[in-house]
Amino acid sequence: MFDRIxxxxxxxxxxxxxxxxxxxxxxxxxxxxxxxxPEGSKQRGPDPTDILxxxxxxxxxxxxxxxxxxxxPGGTHTFIERRGGVGALHHVCLHSTNVPDDVAHLRxxxxxxxxxSPEELAKNEPFDSVAFFHPxxxxxxxxxxxxxxxxxxxxxxxGKGVFTxxxxxxxxxxxxxxxxxxxxxxxGMRAAMLQTNVLKGGKKIESDNxxxxxxxxxxxxxxxxxxxxDDTSSGTARFLEKYGGSAGGTMHHVAFATKDVKAAADxxxxxxxxxxxxxxxxxxxIHPKSAGxxxxxxxxxxx
Length: 303
Hints:
- The chain is α+β, with helices and mostly antiparallel strands.
- It contains seven helices and 15 strands.
- An eight-stranded mixed β-sheet has the order 2-3-4-1-5-8-7-6. Strands 10-11-12-9-13-15-14 form a seven-stranded mixed β-sheet.
- The radius of gyration is 18 Å and the shape is globular.
């Protein structure tokens, strides 16, 4: 069972940029018990990266940068190069209360497990450590499954008190029904029917010409927001075609909750970040050029 989003994986050009943008400018704190400054933690496996963990609410931002100690870089480095050397949202990590069962279920659903040794991938269940699954089988999303741990930073990790939690991870899909099937039937979530009725193909957002489907993960207030464009010319449609056309989807944005959207917008602008359009009482958008290549939404915290 998946009970919460463990982290949003973000590929970033380097650790100093990760700290400046996602800690200093957003008013969050680096978890130095897991990723001590100034260089973060060193992950040296199939995909060597330097990592900075930044908690927000009961989830984390996992910043992944190419190694700076001479270790040959892996797939994350290639991903960053494809995004113009800047970075972008990289993967979704779900926290599991039973990794062997959840991994076995995903394997049985025909989803290809990756990023492990040939011996690990060939062995029979149970598989009881961190697992990754191929974006091709996950609506264009690199999916990570995290083993049960007791590392909780709190329901409302404050930092400077501007942002209270991760509201959602936005994923864009060419076909909303396929997105609903994957997240609900395969992964096992339940769509928020009252807010975004799946029977009508999701909630229509007229201003962006998209439909959205809210899919909570556990009971901590965070979740997945599936987005499907209703045209081929909007910004969302062009983003999908450029970055997720072949897979039918990809990661789109990450949203942070706050009690006062306009005050939060003023805060980040005061720290040098640029917005897209004007904020209102419900939401605002931070331009990817100000956020290491990541599109960030600020949303009102209703939880």
